[in-house]
Amino acid sequence: MKLALSFLFLSTTAFGADIAIFSSNLSRIAAATTPEARDLAINQILNRSQDIVTAALAPSQAKIVAQYRMLRSDSQTGASSDSSGSTSLVLNPYLADILGFSFESGSVLKTVSGNTINLQIKPAGIFCAVKNEDGSDAALGTGCLDFWKRVGITASFDKSRSNAPSQLIALQDDFSQLRFHIDLMQPSVKRAKEEVTRLMAAQAEPASRVALLFATNSALIQWNAEARAMLVEAAAGPTEAAREKALEDAWRTALDRFSALLQIDPGLRAASPPLATFANLNVETNLRTIVLEKLERTSLAFEASWDRPDVAKADVTNGIIRKGLRPPDLGTARLIYSKNYQPLVITANAEASWFNKTFPGMKGNFRNWHISAAATFLLREVPNFGRTTLSFGGLIGDLHQQPLGFDYTVPLVSDPTKTQKIDLSGWIRAFNTRLEFPTANKSITIPISFTYANRTDLNKETEVRGSIGLTLRFDSFFPAK
Amino acid sequence: MINTGFRKYDIESNDFPITITASTDADKLPDLAPVAFLFQDVSSGAVTSQEETFQKGGAKEAKLTIKKPEMTCNIVFAIQVRFPASNPTDKPLKLEFLSNDNQKAKDEIPPENIPIVFGNYVMHSR
User: Same domain, yes or no, for A177 and A324?
Assistant: First the structure.
Protein backbone atom coordinates (compact mmCIF):
# COMPACT_ATOMS: atom_id res chain seq x y z
CA MET A 1 0.00 0.00 0.00
CA LYS A 2 1.47 3.26 -1.03
CA LEU A 3 1.31 5.60 1.86
CA ALA A 4 1.05 9.13 0.75
CA LEU A 5 0.01 12.19 2.61
CA SER A 6 -1.97 13.33 -0.37
CA PHE A 7 -4.78 10.90 0.20
CA LEU A 8 -5.69 12.91 3.23
CA PHE A 9 -5.45 16.18 1.47
CA LEU A 10 -9.11 16.68 1.05
CA SER A 11 -10.87 19.80 0.02
CA THR A 12 -12.57 21.68 2.79
CA THR A 13 -14.96 23.31 0.40
CA ALA A 14 -18.35 21.88 -0.27
CA PHE A 15 -17.66 21.82 -3.97
CA GLY A 16 -14.70 20.62 -5.96
CA ALA A 17 -14.14 17.66 -3.65
CA ASP A 18 -10.72 16.02 -3.82
CA ILE A 19 -11.02 12.45 -5.00
CA ALA A 20 -7.41 11.43 -4.30
CA ILE A 21 -8.35 9.06 -1.50
CA PHE A 22 -10.61 7.13 -3.85
CA SER A 23 -8.07 6.75 -6.66
CA SER A 24 -7.37 3.06 -6.02
CA ASN A 25 -11.11 2.36 -6.06
CA LEU A 26 -11.64 4.29 -9.29
CA SER A 27 -8.70 2.50 -10.89
CA ARG A 28 -10.24 -0.86 -10.00
CA ILE A 29 -13.52 0.14 -11.63
CA ALA A 30 -11.73 1.37 -14.76
CA ALA A 31 -9.60 -1.78 -14.99
CA ALA A 32 -12.49 -4.19 -14.43
CA THR A 33 -12.78 -6.67 -17.28
CA THR A 34 -16.12 -8.18 -16.31
CA PRO A 35 -19.42 -6.64 -15.21
CA GLU A 36 -19.10 -8.54 -11.91
CA ALA A 37 -15.67 -7.07 -11.17
CA ARG A 38 -16.92 -3.61 -12.12
CA ASP A 39 -20.00 -3.90 -9.89
CA LEU A 40 -17.87 -5.15 -6.98
CA ALA A 41 -15.53 -2.18 -7.32
CA ILE A 42 -18.50 0.23 -7.53
CA ASN A 43 -20.03 -1.38 -4.46
CA GLN A 44 -16.76 -0.97 -2.62
CA ILE A 45 -16.47 2.74 -3.36
CA LEU A 46 -20.09 3.43 -2.46
CA ASN A 47 -19.61 1.46 0.76
CA ARG A 48 -16.91 3.85 1.92
CA SER A 49 -19.43 6.04 3.71
CA GLN A 50 -16.95 7.33 6.27
CA ASP A 51 -14.50 8.46 3.59
CA ILE A 52 -17.30 10.09 1.59
CA VAL A 53 -18.22 12.08 4.68
CA THR A 54 -14.58 12.87 5.32
CA ALA A 55 -14.03 14.04 1.75
CA ALA A 56 -16.96 16.39 2.05
CA LEU A 57 -16.19 17.82 5.48
CA ALA A 58 -12.48 17.40 6.21
CA PRO A 59 -10.01 20.20 6.89
CA SER A 60 -7.82 21.56 4.14
CA GLN A 61 -4.53 20.16 2.92
CA ALA A 62 -2.75 23.23 4.26
CA LYS A 63 -4.02 22.61 7.78
CA ILE A 64 -3.03 18.97 7.67
CA VAL A 65 0.43 19.74 6.34
CA ALA A 66 0.94 22.40 9.02
CA GLN A 67 0.11 19.82 11.69
CA TYR A 68 2.33 17.25 10.00
CA ARG A 69 5.28 19.62 9.96
CA MET A 70 4.75 20.49 13.59
CA LEU A 71 4.83 16.82 14.54
CA ARG A 72 8.16 16.22 12.83
CA SER A 73 11.15 16.36 15.13
CA ASP A 74 13.79 15.12 12.72
CA SER A 75 14.56 18.20 10.63
CA GLN A 76 17.96 19.81 10.38
CA THR A 77 18.02 23.53 9.69
CA GLY A 78 21.23 24.60 11.37
CA ALA A 79 24.84 24.32 10.23
CA SER A 80 27.15 21.37 10.78
CA SER A 81 29.59 21.12 13.68
CA ASP A 82 32.57 22.18 11.58
CA SER A 83 31.13 25.67 11.04
CA SER A 84 32.16 28.71 13.04
CA GLY A 85 28.63 29.00 14.34
CA SER A 86 26.67 25.85 15.05
CA THR A 87 24.55 24.27 17.74
CA SER A 88 24.55 20.75 16.27
CA LEU A 89 27.16 18.17 17.10
CA VAL A 90 25.08 15.54 15.30
CA LEU A 91 23.00 16.29 12.19
CA ASN A 92 19.39 15.20 11.72
CA PRO A 93 18.39 13.48 8.49
CA TYR A 94 15.61 15.68 7.08
CA LEU A 95 15.75 19.15 5.64
CA ALA A 96 12.91 21.67 5.57
CA ASP A 97 10.32 21.04 2.84
CA ILE A 98 10.97 24.31 1.01
CA LEU A 99 13.41 26.71 2.54
CA GLY A 100 15.28 26.86 5.79
CA PHE A 101 17.42 29.55 7.34
CA SER A 102 19.48 29.61 10.47
CA PHE A 103 21.72 32.02 12.25
CA GLU A 104 23.96 30.43 14.85
CA SER A 105 26.57 32.00 17.05
CA GLY A 106 29.38 30.11 18.70
CA SER A 107 31.18 27.10 17.35
CA VAL A 108 31.02 23.50 18.43
CA LEU A 109 34.32 22.09 17.20
CA LYS A 110 35.95 24.93 15.35
CA THR A 111 38.72 26.89 17.02
CA VAL A 112 37.70 30.17 15.46
CA SER A 113 34.26 30.73 16.89
CA GLY A 114 31.93 33.04 15.02
CA ASN A 115 28.52 33.40 13.43
CA THR A 116 27.22 31.21 10.63
CA ILE A 117 24.26 31.80 8.37
CA ASN A 118 22.93 28.62 6.88
CA LEU A 119 20.59 28.62 3.90
CA GLN A 120 18.83 25.46 2.91
CA ILE A 121 16.60 24.78 -0.07
CA LYS A 122 14.77 21.88 -1.57
CA PRO A 123 14.44 22.79 -5.25
CA ALA A 124 11.57 20.35 -5.79
CA GLY A 125 9.76 21.79 -2.77
CA ILE A 126 10.09 25.33 -4.11
CA PHE A 127 8.94 24.23 -7.56
CA CYS A 128 5.86 22.45 -6.22
CA ALA A 129 4.94 25.28 -3.85
CA VAL A 130 5.25 27.91 -6.58
CA LYS A 131 3.70 25.86 -9.34
CA ASN A 132 0.38 25.48 -7.56
CA GLU A 133 0.74 28.58 -5.38
CA ASP A 134 0.34 26.26 -2.44
CA GLY A 135 3.12 25.78 0.10
CA SER A 136 1.55 22.57 1.34
CA ASP A 137 2.32 20.94 -2.01
CA ALA A 138 5.98 20.94 -0.97
CA ALA A 139 5.30 18.28 1.66
CA LEU A 140 6.22 14.71 0.95
CA GLY A 141 3.50 12.63 -0.61
CA THR A 142 1.46 15.29 -2.37
CA GLY A 143 2.17 13.73 -5.73
CA CYS A 144 4.40 16.54 -7.01
CA LEU A 145 8.00 15.51 -7.75
CA ASP A 146 8.03 13.31 -4.65
CA PHE A 147 11.28 11.57 -5.56
CA TRP A 148 13.13 14.87 -6.02
CA LYS A 149 11.91 16.13 -2.67
CA ARG A 150 14.61 13.86 -1.20
CA VAL A 151 17.24 16.22 -2.53
CA GLY A 152 18.32 19.34 -0.67
CA ILE A 153 21.15 21.84 -0.90
CA THR A 154 22.64 23.84 1.95
CA ALA A 155 25.09 26.72 1.83
CA SER A 156 26.87 28.08 4.88
CA PHE A 157 28.41 31.49 5.34
CA ASP A 158 30.72 32.14 8.25
CA LYS A 159 29.81 35.76 8.69
CA SER A 160 32.48 36.63 11.17
CA ARG A 161 35.46 34.95 9.69
CA SER A 162 36.48 37.79 7.40
CA ASN A 163 37.38 39.76 10.51
CA ALA A 164 38.11 37.01 12.99
CA PRO A 165 40.46 38.26 15.69
CA SER A 166 42.26 34.96 15.88
CA GLN A 167 45.94 34.65 16.55
CA LEU A 168 46.00 31.53 14.47
CA ILE A 169 44.59 32.78 11.24
CA ALA A 170 42.97 35.78 9.75
CA LEU A 171 40.25 35.17 7.28
CA GLN A 172 38.80 36.79 4.23
CA ASP A 173 35.87 34.97 2.72
CA ASP A 174 32.39 34.29 4.17
CA PHE A 175 31.26 31.40 2.01
CA SER A 176 32.40 28.31 3.84
CA GLN A 177 30.44 25.22 2.90
CA LEU A 178 28.10 23.73 0.34
CA ARG A 179 26.22 20.56 1.27
CA PHE A 180 24.35 18.25 -1.05
CA HIS A 181 21.83 16.06 0.74
CA ILE A 182 19.80 13.08 -0.39
CA ASP A 183 17.49 10.83 1.60
CA LEU A 184 18.57 7.30 0.75
CA MET A 185 16.01 5.15 2.40
CA GLN A 186 12.27 5.04 2.69
CA PRO A 187 12.44 2.79 5.69
CA SER A 188 10.29 -0.08 6.78
CA VAL A 189 7.19 0.79 8.65
CA LYS A 190 6.68 -0.12 12.24
CA ARG A 191 3.48 -0.80 14.08
CA ALA A 192 1.28 2.05 15.08
CA LYS A 193 1.34 3.10 18.66
CA GLU A 194 -1.31 3.32 21.31
CA GLU A 195 -2.44 6.72 20.12
CA VAL A 196 -3.66 5.38 16.81
CA THR A 197 -5.34 2.47 18.57
CA ARG A 198 -7.05 4.91 20.88
CA LEU A 199 -8.22 7.08 18.00
CA MET A 200 -9.48 4.07 16.08
CA ALA A 201 -11.44 2.94 19.12
CA ALA A 202 -12.79 6.44 19.62
CA GLN A 203 -14.24 6.56 16.15
CA ALA A 204 -15.69 3.04 16.19
CA GLU A 205 -19.19 4.08 17.22
CA PRO A 206 -19.29 7.31 15.17
CA ALA A 207 -18.25 5.20 12.16
CA SER A 208 -21.10 2.76 12.73
CA ARG A 209 -23.49 5.70 13.08
CA VAL A 210 -22.31 6.97 9.69
CA ALA A 211 -23.01 3.52 8.29
CA LEU A 212 -26.47 3.57 9.88
CA LEU A 213 -27.20 6.98 8.39
CA PHE A 214 -26.23 5.82 4.91
CA ALA A 215 -28.34 2.70 5.35
CA THR A 216 -31.48 4.45 6.57
CA ASN A 217 -31.61 8.03 5.29
CA SER A 218 -33.79 8.22 2.19
CA ALA A 219 -31.87 11.13 0.66
CA LEU A 220 -28.61 9.22 1.02
CA ILE A 221 -30.12 6.03 -0.34
CA GLN A 222 -31.23 8.02 -3.39
CA TRP A 223 -27.80 9.67 -3.65
CA ASN A 224 -26.21 6.22 -3.54
CA ALA A 225 -28.42 5.04 -6.42
CA GLU A 226 -27.65 8.11 -8.51
CA ALA A 227 -23.93 7.85 -7.82
CA ARG A 228 -24.00 4.19 -8.82
CA ALA A 229 -25.73 5.05 -12.11
CA MET A 230 -23.15 7.75 -12.82
CA LEU A 231 -20.26 5.37 -12.13
CA VAL A 232 -21.76 2.62 -14.27
CA GLU A 233 -22.18 5.05 -17.17
CA ALA A 234 -18.65 6.38 -16.75
CA ALA A 235 -17.24 2.85 -16.63
CA ALA A 236 -18.49 2.22 -20.16
CA GLY A 237 -15.71 4.16 -21.88
CA PRO A 238 -13.68 2.60 -24.71
CA THR A 239 -10.27 2.56 -23.05
CA GLU A 240 -9.06 2.17 -19.47
CA ALA A 241 -7.61 5.68 -19.51
CA ALA A 242 -10.86 7.14 -20.82
CA ARG A 243 -12.83 5.19 -18.25
CA GLU A 244 -10.58 6.37 -15.43
CA LYS A 245 -10.95 9.99 -16.50
CA ALA A 246 -14.73 9.69 -16.82
CA LEU A 247 -14.92 7.92 -13.45
CA GLU A 248 -12.93 10.65 -11.77
CA ASP A 249 -15.27 13.30 -13.19
CA ALA A 250 -18.35 11.30 -12.25
CA TRP A 251 -17.13 10.63 -8.72
CA ARG A 252 -16.16 14.25 -8.20
CA THR A 253 -19.63 15.28 -9.30
CA ALA A 254 -21.19 12.70 -7.01
CA LEU A 255 -19.19 13.96 -4.03
CA ASP A 256 -20.15 17.55 -4.84
CA ARG A 257 -23.80 16.50 -4.87
CA PHE A 258 -23.27 14.77 -1.55
CA SER A 259 -21.78 17.95 -0.09
CA ALA A 260 -24.72 19.96 -1.38
CA LEU A 261 -27.12 17.41 0.06
CA LEU A 262 -25.62 17.86 3.52
CA GLN A 263 -26.44 21.54 3.28
CA ILE A 264 -29.92 21.47 1.78
CA ASP A 265 -31.56 18.30 3.06
CA PRO A 266 -33.26 19.06 6.40
CA GLY A 267 -32.63 15.58 7.80
CA LEU A 268 -28.97 15.64 6.87
CA ARG A 269 -28.44 19.22 7.97
CA ALA A 270 -29.20 18.10 11.50
CA ALA A 271 -26.71 15.26 11.15
CA SER A 272 -24.03 17.52 9.72
CA PRO A 273 -22.28 18.60 12.96
CA PRO A 274 -21.64 15.04 14.19
CA LEU A 275 -20.58 14.10 10.66
CA ALA A 276 -18.10 16.98 10.66
CA THR A 277 -16.82 15.85 14.05
CA PHE A 278 -16.39 12.35 12.66
CA ALA A 279 -14.61 13.70 9.56
CA ASN A 280 -12.09 15.56 11.70
CA LEU A 281 -11.54 12.51 13.89
CA ASN A 282 -11.07 10.29 10.84
CA VAL A 283 -8.54 12.70 9.35
CA GLU A 284 -6.67 12.90 12.64
CA THR A 285 -6.59 9.13 12.97
CA ASN A 286 -5.24 8.71 9.46
CA LEU A 287 -2.83 11.57 9.92
CA ARG A 288 -1.50 10.30 13.22
CA THR A 289 -1.09 6.88 11.62
CA ILE A 290 0.86 8.33 8.74
CA VAL A 291 2.95 10.59 10.90
CA LEU A 292 3.74 7.79 13.30
CA GLU A 293 4.65 5.52 10.46
CA LYS A 294 6.81 8.16 8.90
CA LEU A 295 8.48 9.06 12.16
CA GLU A 296 8.79 5.65 13.73
CA ARG A 297 11.27 4.47 11.26
CA THR A 298 14.85 4.01 10.45
CA SER A 299 16.12 6.80 8.25
CA LEU A 300 19.30 7.08 6.28
CA ALA A 301 20.59 10.06 4.36
CA PHE A 302 23.80 10.82 2.54
CA GLU A 303 25.52 14.15 2.32
CA ALA A 304 28.46 15.30 0.31
CA SER A 305 29.89 18.65 1.20
CA TRP A 306 32.48 20.98 -0.15
CA ASP A 307 34.22 23.03 2.48
CA ARG A 308 36.15 26.14 1.65
CA PRO A 309 38.91 26.64 4.17
CA ASP A 310 39.85 29.82 5.92
CA VAL A 311 42.34 31.97 4.07
CA ALA A 312 44.88 34.29 5.62
CA LYS A 313 44.54 37.88 4.49
CA ALA A 314 47.57 39.01 6.46
CA ASP A 315 50.59 37.48 8.07
CA VAL A 316 49.90 36.96 11.74
CA THR A 317 52.32 36.15 14.46
CA ASN A 318 52.28 32.40 15.00
CA GLY A 319 49.77 32.07 12.13
CA ILE A 320 49.46 28.63 10.62
CA ILE A 321 49.40 29.95 7.10
CA ARG A 322 51.05 32.86 5.40
CA LYS A 323 49.16 35.68 3.73
CA GLY A 324 47.59 34.59 0.46
CA LEU A 325 48.46 30.95 0.92
CA ARG A 326 45.32 28.92 0.44
CA PRO A 327 44.80 25.62 2.23
CA PRO A 328 43.27 22.92 0.07
CA ASP A 329 39.49 22.62 -0.11
CA LEU A 330 37.86 19.76 1.71
CA GLY A 331 35.44 17.16 0.48
CA THR A 332 33.32 15.44 3.10
CA ALA A 333 31.10 12.39 2.84
CA ARG A 334 28.60 11.87 5.62
CA LEU A 335 26.00 9.26 6.45
CA ILE A 336 23.15 10.31 8.70
CA TYR A 337 21.08 7.67 10.44
CA SER A 338 18.15 8.07 12.72
CA LYS A 339 15.70 5.82 14.42
CA ASN A 340 12.62 7.18 16.04
CA TYR A 341 11.29 5.57 19.17
CA GLN A 342 8.95 8.36 20.17
CA PRO A 343 9.45 10.14 22.49
CA LEU A 344 13.11 9.32 21.87
CA VAL A 345 15.00 9.82 18.62
CA ILE A 346 18.40 8.22 18.16
CA THR A 347 20.61 9.87 15.57
CA ALA A 348 24.07 8.85 14.39
CA ASN A 349 26.51 10.36 11.92
CA ALA A 350 29.63 8.93 10.32
CA GLU A 351 31.82 11.15 8.22
CA ALA A 352 35.20 11.35 6.59
CA SER A 353 36.97 14.26 4.90
CA TRP A 354 39.62 14.49 2.21
CA PHE A 355 41.77 17.34 0.98
CA ASN A 356 41.21 17.99 -2.71
CA LYS A 357 44.97 18.28 -3.25
CA THR A 358 48.15 17.54 -1.39
CA PHE A 359 51.17 19.63 -0.57
CA PRO A 360 54.69 18.37 0.10
CA GLY A 361 54.86 16.83 3.55
CA MET A 362 51.17 15.86 3.68
CA LYS A 363 50.22 12.25 4.40
CA GLY A 364 48.00 11.87 1.38
CA ASN A 365 44.55 13.34 0.88
CA PHE A 366 42.74 11.78 3.83
CA ARG A 367 42.19 14.33 6.57
CA ASN A 368 39.93 12.93 9.27
CA TRP A 369 37.02 10.74 10.27
CA HIS A 370 34.56 10.97 13.04
CA ILE A 371 31.45 9.28 14.30
CA SER A 372 28.83 10.80 16.51
CA ALA A 373 25.51 9.90 18.05
CA ALA A 374 22.76 11.72 19.88
CA ALA A 375 19.71 10.82 21.89
CA THR A 376 16.96 13.39 21.47
CA PHE A 377 14.07 13.43 23.89
CA LEU A 378 10.80 14.96 22.71
CA LEU A 379 9.43 16.93 25.61
CA ARG A 380 5.86 18.05 26.15
CA GLU A 381 3.94 19.37 23.14
CA VAL A 382 2.72 22.92 23.63
CA PRO A 383 -0.28 23.72 21.39
CA ASN A 384 0.64 26.10 18.55
CA PHE A 385 4.30 25.99 19.59
CA GLY A 386 5.41 22.40 19.06
CA ARG A 387 7.61 20.08 21.03
CA THR A 388 10.72 21.21 22.82
CA THR A 389 13.56 18.77 22.29
CA LEU A 390 16.51 17.94 24.52
CA SER A 391 19.52 16.15 23.04
CA PHE A 392 22.63 14.58 24.44
CA GLY A 393 25.31 13.83 21.89
CA GLY A 394 28.84 12.54 21.75
CA LEU A 395 31.54 12.51 19.08
CA ILE A 396 34.81 10.73 18.64
CA GLY A 397 37.19 11.03 15.75
CA ASP A 398 40.72 11.27 14.56
CA LEU A 399 42.54 14.02 12.71
CA HIS A 400 44.83 11.97 10.54
CA GLN A 401 47.10 14.90 9.74
CA GLN A 402 47.42 18.66 10.12
CA PRO A 403 43.93 20.15 9.97
CA LEU A 404 44.69 22.70 7.24
CA GLY A 405 47.16 20.54 5.37
CA PHE A 406 50.09 22.75 6.33
CA ASP A 407 52.72 22.09 8.94
CA TYR A 408 52.31 24.44 11.85
CA THR A 409 55.64 25.83 13.00
CA VAL A 410 56.38 28.36 15.72
CA PRO A 411 59.64 29.95 16.81
CA LEU A 412 61.40 28.33 19.72
CA VAL A 413 61.24 30.43 22.87
CA SER A 414 64.85 29.52 23.67
CA ASP A 415 66.11 30.34 20.18
CA PRO A 416 63.74 32.44 18.07
CA THR A 417 65.88 31.83 15.00
CA LYS A 418 64.79 28.22 15.07
CA THR A 419 61.29 26.83 14.73
CA GLN A 420 59.53 23.79 16.01
CA LYS A 421 56.70 21.89 14.39
CA ILE A 422 53.43 21.64 16.31
CA ASP A 423 51.55 18.43 15.62
CA LEU A 424 47.82 19.16 15.48
CA SER A 425 46.78 15.70 14.41
CA GLY A 426 45.20 13.30 16.89
CA TRP A 427 42.03 12.27 18.61
CA ILE A 428 39.07 14.50 19.11
CA ARG A 429 36.28 13.80 21.57
CA ALA A 430 33.29 15.97 22.36
CA PHE A 431 30.07 15.91 24.34
CA ASN A 432 27.15 18.17 23.59
CA THR A 433 23.84 19.03 25.18
CA ARG A 434 21.27 20.81 23.05
CA LEU A 435 17.92 22.27 23.93
CA GLU A 436 15.66 23.47 21.12
CA PHE A 437 12.67 25.65 21.90
CA PRO A 438 9.99 25.77 19.21
CA THR A 439 7.45 28.45 18.44
CA ALA A 440 4.97 29.18 15.65
CA ASN A 441 4.20 25.48 15.22
CA LYS A 442 7.92 24.73 14.94
CA SER A 443 8.43 27.16 12.07
CA ILE A 444 10.85 29.03 14.31
CA THR A 445 13.11 27.42 16.86
CA ILE A 446 15.76 28.65 19.23
CA PRO A 447 18.48 26.06 19.81
CA ILE A 448 20.93 26.44 22.66
CA SER A 449 23.85 24.08 23.06
CA PHE A 450 26.79 23.48 25.35
CA THR A 451 29.80 21.52 24.21
CA TYR A 452 32.73 20.04 26.03
CA ALA A 453 35.58 18.98 23.74
CA ASN A 454 39.06 17.68 24.46
CA ARG A 455 40.23 19.95 21.64
CA THR A 456 39.07 22.00 18.67
CA ASP A 457 40.27 21.73 15.10
CA LEU A 458 43.32 24.00 15.48
CA ASN A 459 43.92 23.88 19.18
CA LYS A 460 44.71 20.86 21.33
CA GLU A 461 43.39 22.37 24.52
CA THR A 462 40.16 21.43 26.28
CA GLU A 463 37.24 23.70 25.47
CA VAL A 464 33.82 24.26 27.04
CA ARG A 465 31.56 26.28 24.79
CA GLY A 466 28.10 27.60 24.53
CA SER A 467 26.28 28.48 21.34
CA ILE A 468 22.86 29.78 20.44
CA GLY A 469 20.90 30.04 17.24
CA LEU A 470 17.70 30.95 15.53
CA THR A 471 16.25 28.72 12.86
CA LEU A 472 13.39 29.48 10.52
CA ARG A 473 11.59 27.01 8.33
CA PHE A 474 9.83 29.01 5.68
CA ASP A 475 7.60 26.12 4.69
CA SER A 476 4.63 27.57 6.52
CA PHE A 477 5.31 31.10 5.30
CA PHE A 478 4.46 30.18 1.72
CA PRO A 479 0.84 30.87 0.77
CA ALA A 480 -1.38 27.84 1.08
CA LYS A 481 -4.76 27.20 -0.41
CA MET B 1 -28.29 -15.68 7.30
CA ILE B 2 -28.82 -14.83 3.64
CA ASN B 3 -26.66 -12.50 1.61
CA THR B 4 -29.01 -9.98 -0.04
CA GLY B 5 -26.55 -7.52 -1.50
CA PHE B 6 -23.13 -6.03 -1.06
CA ARG B 7 -22.41 -6.32 2.67
CA LYS B 8 -26.12 -6.77 3.33
CA TYR B 9 -27.62 -9.82 5.00
CA ASP B 10 -31.00 -11.03 6.17
CA ILE B 11 -30.76 -12.61 9.58
CA GLU B 12 -33.03 -14.67 11.82
CA SER B 13 -32.93 -15.35 15.51
CA ASN B 14 -31.46 -18.82 15.05
CA ASP B 15 -28.42 -17.30 13.30
CA PHE B 16 -27.00 -16.07 16.60
CA PRO B 17 -24.34 -16.05 17.73
CA ILE B 18 -22.69 -14.98 14.48
CA THR B 19 -18.93 -15.35 14.39
CA ILE B 20 -16.85 -13.05 12.21
CA THR B 21 -13.39 -14.38 11.40
CA ALA B 22 -10.87 -11.93 10.00
CA SER B 23 -7.78 -13.32 8.32
CA THR B 24 -5.09 -12.34 5.86
CA ASP B 25 -2.70 -13.82 3.34
CA ALA B 26 -0.24 -11.03 4.12
CA ASP B 27 2.51 -11.56 6.68
CA LYS B 28 0.57 -9.89 9.44
CA LEU B 29 -3.06 -9.28 10.24
CA PRO B 30 -3.92 -5.57 9.91
CA ASP B 31 -4.97 -3.75 13.07
CA LEU B 32 -8.67 -4.12 13.78
CA ALA B 33 -10.46 -1.53 15.88
CA PRO B 34 -13.22 -2.44 18.30
CA VAL B 35 -16.52 -2.67 16.48
CA ALA B 36 -19.56 -0.73 17.65
CA PHE B 37 -22.66 -2.72 16.78
CA LEU B 38 -25.77 -0.58 16.44
CA PHE B 39 -28.93 -2.52 17.19
CA GLN B 40 -32.03 -0.91 15.75
CA ASP B 41 -35.23 -2.22 17.31
CA VAL B 42 -37.46 -3.08 14.35
CA SER B 43 -40.64 -2.15 16.24
CA SER B 44 -39.62 1.10 17.91
CA GLY B 45 -36.69 2.19 15.76
CA ALA B 46 -34.65 2.82 18.91
CA VAL B 47 -30.93 2.33 18.50
CA THR B 48 -28.63 0.88 21.12
CA SER B 49 -24.91 0.34 20.82
CA GLN B 50 -22.65 -2.44 21.96
CA GLU B 51 -18.93 -2.60 21.43
CA GLU B 52 -17.02 -5.81 20.80
CA THR B 53 -13.34 -6.41 20.24
CA PHE B 54 -11.69 -8.82 17.85
CA GLN B 55 -9.87 -11.57 19.74
CA LYS B 56 -6.59 -12.57 18.13
CA GLY B 57 -6.12 -16.20 17.22
CA GLY B 58 -2.52 -16.13 16.04
CA ALA B 59 -0.66 -13.66 13.87
CA LYS B 60 -3.03 -13.92 10.94
CA GLU B 61 -6.48 -14.40 12.38
CA ALA B 62 -8.92 -12.75 14.75
CA LYS B 63 -12.49 -13.50 15.72
CA LEU B 64 -15.43 -11.52 16.94
CA THR B 65 -18.88 -12.71 17.96
CA ILE B 66 -22.23 -10.97 17.52
CA LYS B 67 -24.39 -12.11 20.39
CA LYS B 68 -28.13 -12.53 20.09
CA PRO B 69 -29.86 -9.22 20.85
CA GLU B 70 -32.65 -9.15 23.39
CA MET B 71 -35.25 -7.97 20.87
CA THR B 72 -35.66 -8.30 17.12
CA CYS B 73 -33.14 -5.87 15.66
CA ASN B 74 -31.49 -4.72 12.51
CA ILE B 75 -27.74 -4.56 13.05
CA VAL B 76 -25.47 -2.00 11.46
CA PHE B 77 -21.73 -1.88 12.03
CA ALA B 78 -18.49 -0.65 10.55
CA ILE B 79 -15.35 -2.77 10.64
CA GLN B 80 -12.38 -0.45 10.85
CA VAL B 81 -9.08 -1.75 9.54
CA ARG B 82 -5.65 -0.14 9.70
CA PHE B 83 -3.54 -1.59 6.94
CA PRO B 84 0.17 -1.19 7.58
CA ALA B 85 2.12 0.39 4.76
CA SER B 86 3.84 -2.93 4.17
CA ASN B 87 0.55 -4.71 3.44
CA PRO B 88 0.55 -5.71 -0.25
CA THR B 89 -2.27 -4.11 -2.26
CA ASP B 90 -3.47 -7.50 -3.45
CA LYS B 91 -3.80 -8.96 0.05
CA PRO B 92 -7.16 -7.84 1.41
CA LEU B 93 -8.52 -8.52 4.85
CA LYS B 94 -10.65 -11.63 4.46
CA LEU B 95 -13.85 -11.90 6.44
CA GLU B 96 -16.01 -14.92 7.03
CA PHE B 97 -19.40 -14.69 8.70
CA LEU B 98 -20.53 -17.93 10.27
CA SER B 99 -24.00 -18.24 11.75
CA ASN B 100 -24.95 -20.60 14.54
CA ASP B 101 -26.83 -22.78 12.03
CA ASN B 102 -23.65 -23.08 10.00
CA GLN B 103 -24.46 -20.65 7.18
CA LYS B 104 -21.44 -18.85 5.80
CA ALA B 105 -20.85 -15.59 3.99
CA LYS B 106 -17.55 -14.22 2.82
CA ASP B 107 -16.28 -10.72 2.15
CA GLU B 108 -13.02 -8.90 1.63
CA ILE B 109 -11.88 -5.40 2.59
CA PRO B 110 -9.08 -4.39 0.23
CA PRO B 111 -6.35 -1.93 1.25
CA GLU B 112 -6.90 1.52 -0.23
CA ASN B 113 -4.52 4.44 -0.51
CA ILE B 114 -5.29 5.57 3.03
CA PRO B 115 -4.29 3.58 6.11
CA ILE B 116 -7.71 3.35 7.73
CA VAL B 117 -10.36 1.52 5.68
CA PHE B 118 -13.94 0.87 6.71
CA GLY B 119 -16.28 -1.90 5.70
CA ASN B 120 -19.93 -1.15 6.47
CA TYR B 121 -22.38 -3.97 7.08
CA VAL B 122 -26.15 -4.04 7.40
CA MET B 123 -28.00 -7.07 8.79
CA HIS B 124 -31.77 -6.90 8.38
CA SER B 125 -33.84 -8.94 10.76
CA ARG B 126 -36.50 -11.11 9.10
Answer: yes
**Alpha-helix residue ranges (DSSP H) falling in A47-143:** 49-57, 61-71, 123-131
Question: A-chain residues within 8 Å CB-CB of B87?
Answer: 1
Average per-residue pLDDT for chain A: 82
Residues B6, A191: C-beta atoms closer than 8 Å: no
pLDDT of residue A175: 83
Residues A313 and A457 in one domain: yes
Residue-averaged pLDDT of chain B: 92
Please provide residue A29's backbone torsions phi and psi, each rounded to the nearest 5 degrees: -65, -45
Q: A107 and A256 share a domain?
A: no
Q: What is the ipTM of this complex?
A: 0.89
Q: How many domains does chain A have?
A: 2
Which of A276, A291, A306 is the endpoint of a domain? A291
The Cα of A68 is separated from the nearest Cα of chain B by a number of Å equal to 16
CB B80 within 8 A of CB B115: no
The stretches in chain A having pLDDT less than 50 are: 1-16, 165-168, 170, 186-193
Query: Taking the domain B2-125, which CATH number applies?
Result: 2.60.60
**Per-residue pLDDT reduced to its tens digit, B73-103:** 999 999 999 888 788 989 999 999 999 999 9
Domain finish residue from A291, A322, A344: A291
The verdict on pTM exceeding 0.90 is no
Residue A77 lies in a domain: no
Whole-number percent of chain A with pLDDT over 90: 38
**A91 to chain B nearest CA, in Å?**
27
List CB contacts (< 8 A) between A186 and chain B. none
> In Å, what is the CA distance from A150 to each residue of A79, A122, A480, B29?
19, 8, 21, 31
**Contact residues on chain B for A290, CB-CB shorter than 8 A:** 115
Here the CATH number for the domain that contains residue A392 is 2.40.160.40
* DSSP element (H, E) containing A271: helix A266-295
A232: containing domain: 5-58+193-291
Q: Do A168 and A248 share a structural domain?
A: no
A2:B113 CB<8 A: yes
Residue A142 φ/ψ, nearest 5 degrees? -90, 0
Helix, strand, or coil (residue A364): coil
Give A26's contacts in chain B (Cβ within 8 Å).
none
